[in-house]
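Entry for xanthosine-5'-monophosphate complex. Fields follow.
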Amino acid sequence: MNETILILDFGSQYTQVIARRIRESRVYSEIVPFHTPAAEIRRRAPRGLILSGGPASVHDPDAPMPDPEIFQLGLPVLGICYGLQAMAHLLGGQVEHSAKREYGKGTLEVTARDCPLFQGVSRRSQVWNSHGDRIARLPEGFRPVAATENSDYAAIEHAGRKLYGLQFHPEVAHTPQGRKILGNFVHKICGCGRRWTMRRFIDQAVESIREQVGSERVILGLSGGVDSSVAAALIHRAIGDQLTCIFVNNGLLRAREAETVQEVFGRHFHIRLIYQNATRDFLAALKGVTDPERKRKIIGRKFIEVFEAGTRKAGPARFLAQGTLYPDVIESVPIGGNPAALIKSHHNVGGLPKRMKFELLEPLRCLFKDEVRQVGLELGLPGEIVWRQPFPGPGLAVRIVGEVTKRRLDILRQADAIVLEEMKATGWYRRIWQSFAVLLPVRSVGVMGDERTYDYTVAVRAVESQDGMTADWVRLPHELLERLASRIINEVKGVNRCVFDITSKPPGTIEWE
Ligand code: XMP
């Protein structure tokens, strides 16, 4: 059984960051809705609780409040920002509504050096604030343990009951000693060890996969992306040949993708792999289609058809394995804030048709992306797969504006390979969310040598993002942009112009469609 810290989510945009920080301290953490009953929390037997921040004010008529009984469970509690205010409010303190939000950097001064939260933390350090309300009077039994320019109660403590509160956000990068503070909470105050490691995760996952699957067979749709690849390697370690992977080549893949998957999984891991080459089928189905939504629908439908044919080749199986990750299963709470945050990716196909009856096997359900990569490395997957950027299911079809043809795919594939190569060579590839080429089949005039050309345009896109929901374009160095443009125009026949996309999301999307 893992030692667990439960994080009650009050709707902060940083709740997942808190969970990741705790796990980086090698302690397992999970996010639950703020209204989770105390009895349910007791049943789950965590070692401590964290109350996240959130957009509400405790004075709102419908302010989200935790079950007051959670403070009677004898568990250490750390309230962060709104979480601190909710705790202070429920325990009889006074929270003052302030019209002016305190937002931005502040200097924290630790006033109680004996407070375990601040062991090893400098007396003065930078912290990040983002709150409206503030504490005007402490609840009984609490004392202030740190202050900022604007607040005597930047951190508070009830040592006897192990209740703590921080007015600032320890989880964000702008609070450089925040990790240390969170680490102190889980290790020194909650008494957790450092047991959450990916090696241990693998051992536990192998055991529970074996238990769940028994002697049955498992099918997995391998896309070559990080999640399905790691799921395949993990399940293979657990049950070997009871696993069959199906890889569909839809002809919309990047250069060498199909080969890499076959090399790594077939030849290196010796995983039973069914390779469905449906390149021609997809292209034929896409002929003449220019509408982006129709393209997507056709590709989705075709995929199911080809995948189903693959499952027939694989033979009967009881389980379908998927690389679902933790951010997809966290129950989100709609609180005043940003409803966009609740809209799950519209891209993920609604699943397989009902006639294909499987039980789901989702061994990565509790992991964040960075943990999945770590698991992949531990399992011996090559960096080429583990560090891959996200790649859309409909592949290059959403990177060609207008009709998808073989010639256009060939052109885009070459341009895209140059982008990847240069991004990798300069170290930018791993630092950002996505970088790729887009083909605009609009022709314009150019000159090459003595000749006039009339060719396509390639747009280079490079974006920074946490989850794909919002994104900003990356300020790539001019030298790199220059090299990309000159290589693409010189090496890719059919292209005579290269532009760099400087649209953020919103209002743009990441893909062009
Ligand atoms: P957009 O273009 O909507 O993309 O800003 C957001 C993120 O989702 C990826 N994407 C997809 N992923 N199937 C996927 O698995 C899809 O159909 C799909 N379409 C877009 C996109 O690459 C970006 O990371």
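NOTE: The chain has 14 helices and 20 strands.
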